[in-house]
Design brief:
Rossmann fold, 19% strand, alpha/beta, 13 helices, 399 residues, disordered N terminus, 29% helix
Length: 399
Amino acid sequence: MLRIFICPYGILTTPTQLGQRNHVGWPPPVTQIRLGIIGYGSCARVFHLPFIERNPTYRLVAILEPRSPEEQHPQSHCTTDYPGTRWYRTLDEFCADPEIDLAVVTTPNESHASIARKVLGSGKHVVVDKPVTCTSDEASELISLAREVAKVFAPFQNRRYDSDWRTLLSILPYLGEIHEMIIHKDKNSPEWAISDRSTSVGPGAGAAMGMGSHSVDWCLALFGRPASITAFYRTLRPIESPVEDSFTMILQYGEAAPPIEDVGYSPIIALAPAVRKNLLVTNKTNVYSNMVPLRFVIRGREGSFVKYGEDPQDAQIVAGIMPDDPRFGLEDDTIHGELSTATKALDSQRKSMFYRDVANAVMGAGTLTANPETARDGIRLIELARESSQLGRTVDFTM
């Protein structure tokens, strides 16, 4: 049994890399990307700005926040935190600014599609927080629009950069033919779930659209579109509501993956038809998990990998440990993964950054790791999972 020690950044190949930070040593930018934030809540403060500020390729030039400094705010106003940054109160004003190259949308789920449509139409690249849209049709529309205006449309699937996920990718060659995977994204009675009193399923509502948009993305990234979905959406908080806080999705795969020209991406793992038809992937979220949660179980013919716990970076940022701190992303010994195989020891992992990939795409120097086609299929899978749960039967994956 080999214990895998997980670090936050990318593969450690030389001793020099041990001392590098995320933003150090990356090619110095020829030009800066002028970036604007749409929405100034906790999402922007925790998940976006700490990484943007520490990447010299970006220059924050504008923030769209409708509320004034005099209005009641749970936190300080953007004009206080970023006094040298232009402040806009309307989307029209923001989109009319010719000195914004890239907009980052961090607003409520139901507004994502309309805002992204306006931003792309104004000739700007756009990053949209998850879920990228509330329907797969909206995602398809934005993909077409981005192609038409030749701009980057990047879904914020930042969990593709979690330390344990990157380590999982590195150990795949040691597992042989994969025949089963179990993914958990559990929480221990989070306040946002327990206090949710909503009784109707509005656009973008529910745990599947929230946490599920990340775990579904992992499924699609690894294996591509499934052949069918069997799902169970559940409400565990003490309220009668169709708005789920927990779910189980069981994905079954056909013999052949759809061709890339039909879907826009290829799965990371290419399985032979005889193996693929027996592949089973289970994706779960439970909001009442009061122990160190299971994260990944992946089984192959030559080895298995088990991982407990959750990537620590979000909690670290809330606690004031920023991405340029040496402690950032390092996991506690109690949640390291275990690889059961006869192979040699593996290097630990360091993490590459979401915004590094976006910069490469904007500058024409690379492509997105998490592309909008995968995000579109993720939304579609969540739609079909809800249908399966409501009908009480397995449904085929269709677009």
